[in-house]
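Treating backbone geometry as a discrete language has practical consequences that deserve illustration. Part of our work consisted of pairing the sequence of a single chain with a tokenised description of its backbone. What the numbers capture is local backbone geometry rather than side-chain detail. For completeness, the protein is quoted in full, as a sequence line and a line of structure tokens:
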Amino acid sequence: MATYNKRGYKPKTKVEKEHNIEEGSTTAEVFNTLDETASKTEDFVAKNQKYIFIIIGLVAVVVLGSLGYKEFISQPKQTEAMNDMFQAQKYFDEAVTGAAAQKDSLYSLALNGGEGKFGMLDIIEEYSGTPSANLASYYAGTAYLRLKDYENAVAYLGDFKSNDEILAPLAKGNIGDAFVQLNQPEDALGYYEEAFKMRDNEYTTPMYLFKAGSIAMDLGESDKALGYFKRIKEDYSNSTEAEKVDVFIGKAQVLANK
């Protein structure tokens, strides 16, 4: 239990006097230790002052260099990349929404550029390390998928990194689509499973649950397929996939009971 003495209080008994002497000695030892530590620290600083300043200087250079790079190099480079990417992205959007007869030529223009403007491949090479180059990898991979160049689709989509709610699972799912076309269903299933696990939304999650279930059935994994189809029915009843999932639940149940 902590105790304290009133101001001006004088010890009356021998025990109290001895206690105060001991207390004073302990306090003195503490201050002496602090003095010694401070003295040693001052000696160290004095002897190593030159090196300490060098270290501080190097840290300052790194910090200021990082800030300077972001302010004067990284941000302007990203702005320039976005401007150069505008026409390629326009070609890509037109390919997605345009007439079927024009899709291939528009996807090729999105990849390689046109009208003297950069394509997605140019953006990736010229602005490596920027967010625009990363996004261009997604566009390039998807364009290759639509052009049926499945190996390039896998390569470029695999380079794309994102935490986006929609684009992140779409990139994984598109890789799955490419592996289906390459007749590698096991790989396709793995990417579809990654895609529906990445995010939980009403668009990509039921879509890739359905694709994963369909591939799982083809691979003879009927129990797994049944679980995926039932999850669509229970958790995503308003999705497009839910409208047809009862048929697939029935098929999976028949196969699972064989």
Q: What stands out?
A: The radius of gyration is 34 Å.
